[in-house]
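Hey there, shall we discuss this one?
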Amino acid sequence: MKVGDVVKATIVNIKDFGAFADFDGGSGLIYFTQIVPRVEHGAIEDVLSIGDTVDCAISEIKPDGKISLTMKIKRKEARKAKIEEVKQDIQNMSEEDTNIRSIWMALTDIQHFMLKYMQMPIPIKNGSSKIDSKGEKLIAEIDQEVHFDAFQNEVRRVFSADVLKHETLSGYWYFETDAELYNPEVRQLFADECSNMYVRMQANPVIEISISHADEKSKCILLSRLQNYYAQMEIVSDKEDSLFLTLPYRSHVELNDYRDELGYALDGISNGVPDVGDNGERIEYEQAYFHWQIKDVRDGCDRFLLTLNEEALLDREGLRFGSLRGQSFVIPNGENDIPLGKLSKIDYPKVVFSLFQDAIGSIKPLVERDSLRIIAPDESDLTGEIEKVNRLRDSFDRITEHPELLANPKLASYLFDASNATPLDEEIVKARIESFKKTQLNANLNQSQVSSIAKAVEAKDLALIQGPPGTGKSTAIAELIWQLILQNPQTRILLTSEANLAVDNALDKLKSSVHNIVKPIRIAAGDKFSAEGLSYAQTELKKWAGIELSKIELEDDELAKETDEYKSFDAKEIVLNRWLRNIYTRSHDRIENPELRKLWYDILTDLPLSWKKRVYEEYISHCNVIGATCSAISDTNYSATEEKGRHSDSIFIRKFRCIFGETDKDGYVTRLRFNTVIQDEASKATPAELSLPLAYGEKAVVIGDHRQLPPNLDKEGILFKLHMQRIRSASREEHDQIVQLEKYVRKNFDLLEKSHFERLFRQIDASLKGTFDTQYRMHKDINDVIEQFYVEDNGLRCGVRDVDRQHNIDIPELLSPENHVIWIDTNSPEVRDGTSRANKGEVEAIGWLLEKFAKSDSFKQYQQSLSTDEEKEIGLITFYGSQMKRLRPLVEQSTKKGLRIKMSSVDRFQGMERNIIIVSLVRSNRIAQKWNQRPDFRLFPDRGFPAQNDYGFAKSPNRLNVALSRAKRLLIIVGNSEHFCNYVNSEGQAIYRNVFEKIRSNPNGRVIDWGKASPVKDNTFKIIRVPMPRNRSINLNTRDINTETDKILRITETWLTRDGQPVQNPHFAVLELSTKAVKLLIGQDENVIMTSAEFSFNNFIREAAKTETGKGLDEQNMMNMDFFRGRVLPVIRRMKLKMRDEGVDVVYAVATAAYRTAKNRDEIIECIRKEAGINVRILSKKEESVATMFAYGISSRYKTDILKSRHTVMVDQGGGSTEVSVFNQGELEGSYSINLGTTALRNILTKDVSPDTSMRDALRKSDQMLRERMVAFMKNMGITMLSNEETFCVSVGTAITSATGKSGNAKQHDSVLEYDRISQKIENLTSTILERFDTVGDLVRWEQRMGDDTMDRNLTMRMGLPMYLLLMDKFNIKSIHVCGTGLWYGIYLQHLFNVAD
């Protein structure tokens, strides 16, 4: 310990002459003259209290050891100590804090690549460019095919196929591939992502039907009947005498069925064959005259049809180019780019450039030769976006590496962990509240506002305020500024937000004061001001005072004058006029002489120009509040700094110095510093955006609401733009960086969009945060609906009088004056539109609603009672852009009928409010692929459409809170209550059910059943069957099982007890009905099996019979019931007798592929039930995979490895197909199927091969075909199969079990086969086969008389094992663990351990 050391000392006693303080290592006296701020003798308690912690330096150590302390530390020494403390905090960061740093870095990198996307070169369409008659403007058209080129590349990458122009359809393209190599989820994801490349594509392939020589009457009959049969059939083209139709299908089985069936359907329609409905009703039709053709595609291929999504292209690219308006462009020309001009007009794809005069000579020849092909934004002029990215990066660097560059170095500590912010003593807050009440600007503040503001005023470095909707944040900000300036009139405050409007609104609240102590100035580019913000613009202040504008100010003034906001700006409201009016108001009562008072008024309202200049200078010299957006605040022009190689000031700091001077009072250059930064709408800011303004403040007051919207990030848009940048990456390093960033976004997107304000609010000490608890916006009934979101924050009270939120609208069948919350309950399907969604039923309901308003005299009276256009507007909010597009025509029609409507997404509506709000939820429990799709009750008997259980954006309670809390008088929700009431979030909250029940249980709430209220009733679509020959049965079931709808095929158990009733602790068995056999498994003693330390095959009774059930299926997958009854049913009956002999109480019978695939599977299951007395559950593919893996997990000596493994793969290789399933610590993550099994692979040897072909060439060809098919199969698996960790692989199947060289499942079980052993086995098998067969003809002749089981097994192994090597190579698999248990053991053990569901 030595003189000069800086210590943290705690005050322990106070005397008139000084304060005694303890510190680590000693204690000392702070004499009153050494206390900061300055105090008089005896008045120390005015600034210090016992328990306060203060920074001191040791000023003297006396001979007797007594220590003198001083609070007058040299600023550099104090700051140095604080910086060292912060650096230590950074080193001691928790894992969560480190994660926040990685999130911050990722977001900054994302911004960088988003900017690079903006900088991408833009192709110009051939022959479209021309120069106007004056030679001043270039008119051109953007070539839109660049996006289609990207799409073509994606098709090649994902499907290994080329995109081709359609042979007959104009504006359509197609590609062909084997659809069954790609699971439906992969295809759907690709189809959704196509919207980012402005292409429309369905996830399923289509059959193309051409109709020609058809008159109008025949076309009507044809379309009516076909759409009765096939609700999903689409009319792609309808010309004079022709039609082009498509019908999607999901599998090759369905394709073959449809092709056969369509032939009968078209012939029947042509011949006037009547239809018969499900109810037996006969429907007569006239003949229709036409020619038809069903398009053939290459064998084994499926056709995907696609077209440009021009509407999305115009919307999105129009927005992109709109953001570039005013941007300078160049013509790329190596290192010497040719200047072009500024983008002055956008009517996408048409663009107009105002040419640079000195560039016309270079550009004119290019246009005349039609050789202008590429233009690009001038990077040196992309200042706004480039500067923002640079600011984000610089901010990250300052805070994480150089805290000494911050106004308050502690920001680097508390921005990551708010618990590091200096807490407040409760007594200090109480004292501030009492002081507050004496100087309150707004007497109507409630207690929660007063308390929160008092904490913010007293906070040393950070305070947080949570402001729920309608709780008066802008009013509170005005009060906070007032109190801070009362505390210190010389203080400098930065008021900031991400949105310009939020800054202007908060500033506007300050005008209610009659005092002039608060003197704000707004800094922004001229076109960023609202009308309210212009009152504080320095350009307007200077113009008022007659002072000449600088060059920057002139540019700002021109930009401002071009905006609509400027037109509504009232110059009388300029802050200097209000300042003078305030002077008059305060002096009014003190001037008794009326003439003198009038003279005083005239002087103040019509000052001479020289006086105005003096007023301006006085105001500027005492400015204490700066208003600006977060992204504008910076002291550096990074682009110019990089170009010049030395520091260059930003426009912001230049404007800042115009206010505060070029130098400070000590002669140093004025730095960008504030005593307090107040940041509003902070919940929408990422950590990086939050830090931008805070870096310049000694203290931060951060205001937001983590129950409202977090940062607005578009996951699909980010991934698409990153992908585009990856394709164009200039180096391997950049390519790899983007790949890692894409992975990070996919894995951590929830973290990326989480509000950093929420993290800080949960961390910070209670003495530094406050929550406003009373809202003044919504009627109480609306408040009750959203109150659930604030339960953890002590609720949300209604502070508005009921009488102030009445609407008095009375519309029969819709609402009464007492209704303030309504739910219109729909059940229509959502419609897929790329990654977006729409809902036709909700659009129709909203159209009906708006029509009711437009026709209502009561509604017109309500509107007449309101004074402003904004009050009269109806707010229309939806979660999806596609729904907004569908609603837009309704809004335009309603506007013509006198309604005023403000339509927007939830994200854009935050911060706004309207008296009436309509919310369209969009999502539903059923989904359609197109807008006018009819229900298909043949395929989807319950709802007519495929079921879907996702909620998309609507899962976010924050998004729902924002949507509902915009309403003041009336809230109308339109949506599917059945779907939304089933949603429970990760925290167990049923947020939608709470809303629905709150409305339904409210005596003044109303729920309207749209099915009954709709003026247009849905047609009851009857199931009309295609007129087929009587001897042919059609049943279009898919290959898999729908666990929700196929309940009749899913009966789990059969009780074999005498009375057929359940008993406790039953003795049970499993009966597996597979494609090849019927297998019975009975445990000898369930208790022994369950409690044994090790699994043993000896604990089971097994019996199996080879039935070759699959051979009973014909080409149409119809089971021959005579075959089944003669060959399979007797075995099932025999197995049942065996079970009775063994005393089995209950049997769990399961069926697999052959039963699942059979079109008449209902008949088969019913036959087993009636004729054998056994209930059967047909398993889905997923259930098979899980059960098989479960058995291995229980029975294997490697069970611990499986449970620990984050990447376990189960390969189930059958005869016709192979299933690959991926597990993470026992949980299924994905399952993939390829229609290549050992039997199919053996067929490849002889298919389309000449008998004279050598056996060696045939094997080589089959191996090559396997590799080609596996490439596509492995692409289809996606990233789920990829892992940085070693993969634990389990396999079941004849090839792999035989490869062990052991006989019997018990011996084969848990064998481990390494790559080299399998490879050697393949070589040995190849030699054995070549010794036996010279040509393919020899093999065919042997198969016809096949009787050698050993050679049969050798062929099965030789064809099946190469697939394992390909999988092991690709997915980091070192060895294969052989499973000898299989499905029947899995089902048994699932029931034994009660995990069958």
Summary: The first helix runs from residue 75 to 91. The chain is about 40% helix and 20% strand.
